[in-house]
Design a protein that fits this description.
With about 375 residues, the chain is an alpha/beta fold. It has 13 helices and 10 strands. Bound molecules: phosphoenolpyruvate and manganese (II) ion.
């Protein structure tokens, strides 16, 4: 699939956003003092990009929904006093106009908004003819096409400086994360649109400050371009997302502890890596040979089921396979969930194949 996107590197007057860059600031601007003091402490460490939510999309009514336009002059002061560039979330035309009026430097589109093409189109229309970087969070649901669709809408409005923010995906039963990362989705986004910068948002993935470091490190090891992390002068007293915020000093300490590894391997001695990759290629080919062989047996079973008029799905047998493979995975020191995912997928394909066989046999009889 080719995407017809006209993108430019992310930049601001006098500042190129080169890997790895950091955007930080409170989940919400609460008071002028809290906003300015957080910015001062971030600027002291040399950080250049300040975020603060002005309009907050909250799950249930009655929670703090942001100070609204009242907070925009505070961000203007942040800029004047610290020289930091400012970023806010916009969810409709009104937000766009207000943010532009107060000289906001970067806009971002929140996860709930990205999920709604009408809302994204409305924002895109409001941005026509304006040159401002726009960051687009993934939609709340794990739908890469919907994420790319939002990127296309904003790009078609003439915005060329676009970045994607990976903030994780809602899930009913994830106990570890507030929003499951599903890393394969941003990895696939990178594969499809290599020139698009991707920023990781460990705050909204984790929901708790204890996990910020491990997620940030993983994002850097996956070659993401930047991080957006919430910080607050008094995190425990924050009016929104208290559990995931950290002080600017704690943030700085965490950032300093992240290991940045090389993203290019061109100038390294290659023989060892080449040999290991050769081994991987060989093993992958063996896996494919085995899969082919397994699929042939499954086809033979399909014919047997047709001849004996029994249903394709035999739940007891399927259950037995999963239980035995899980136990075997454990015995071999493999992650049982990973192994189960593979066998579920193999079983699904076997069912498709056997279904095809049944249909073909029926045709023959006609
Ligand atoms: C935020 O960044 O504070 C926010 C509301 O994020 P999301 O859209 O990822 O929920
Ligand atoms: Mn937040």
């Amino acid at each position: 699939m080719k995407y017809n996107l006209d993108l430019e590197p992310l930049s601001l007057p006098g500042l190129e956003l080169k890997r790895p860059f950091l955007i930080s600031g409170p989940c919400s601007a609460e008071t002028e003092e809290q906003t300015l003091e957080t910015a001062r402490q971030l600027a002291k460490h040399g950080y250049k990009l300040f975020r603060a939510g002005i309009w907050k999309p909250r799950t249930r009514p009655g929670a703090f929904e942001g100070v609204g336009t009242l907070g925009l002059p505070w961000l203007k002061r942040v800029k004047e006093e610290t020289g930091m560039f400012t970023c806010v979330e916009v969810a409709n035309t009104h937000h766009v106009y207000e943010a532009l009026k107060f000289g906001i430097d970067i806009l971002w589109i929140g996860a709930r908004t990205t999920a709604n093409p009408f809302a994204v189109q409305e924002i895109a229309d409001a941005l026509k003819g304006i040159d401002i970087p726009v960051l687009i969070k993934n939609p709340v649901n794990p739908d890469l096409d919907l994420w790319i669709g939002a990127i296309e809408r904003i790009n078609q409005a003439g915005i060329k400086k676009i970045g994607a923010i990976h903030r994780g995906f809602s899930s009913f039963d994830d106990l570890k994360y507030r929003n499951s990362p599903h890393w394969q989705i941003p990895i696939e986004l990178r594969r499809r649109i290599p020139q698009l910068p991707i920023i990781n948002d460990p705050s909204h993935i984790s929901g708790k400050r204890e996990l910020l470091k491990e997620i940030s490190q993983e994002a850097m090891d996956l070659n993401f371009d930047g991080l957006i992390i919430e910080s607050h002068i008094n995190p425990d007293k924050a009016w929104s997302d208290a559990a995931q915020q950290i002080t600017p000093d704690a943030l700085h300490e965490m950032i300093e502890s992240i290991v940045l590894r090389k993203s290019k391997i061109e100038n390294l001695p290659r023989t060892k890596l080449d040999k290991l990759r050769e081994q991987i290629d060989k093993l992958d080919n063996q896996l494919l040979d085995l899969l082919k062989e397994r699929m042939k047996v499954s086809e033979a079973i399909g014919h047997y089921k047709f001849e004996n008029n029994i249903t394709i799905l035999q739940t007891r047998r399927y259950d037995e396979i999963l239980t035995k493979r899980r136990a075997k995975a454990q015995e071999k020191g493999l992650n049982p969930d990973f192994v189960i995912d593979i066998f579920e997928s193999i079983h699904e394909e076997s069912i498709h194949c056997q279904n095809d066989i049944m249909n073909k046999e029926l045709e023959k009889k006609k």
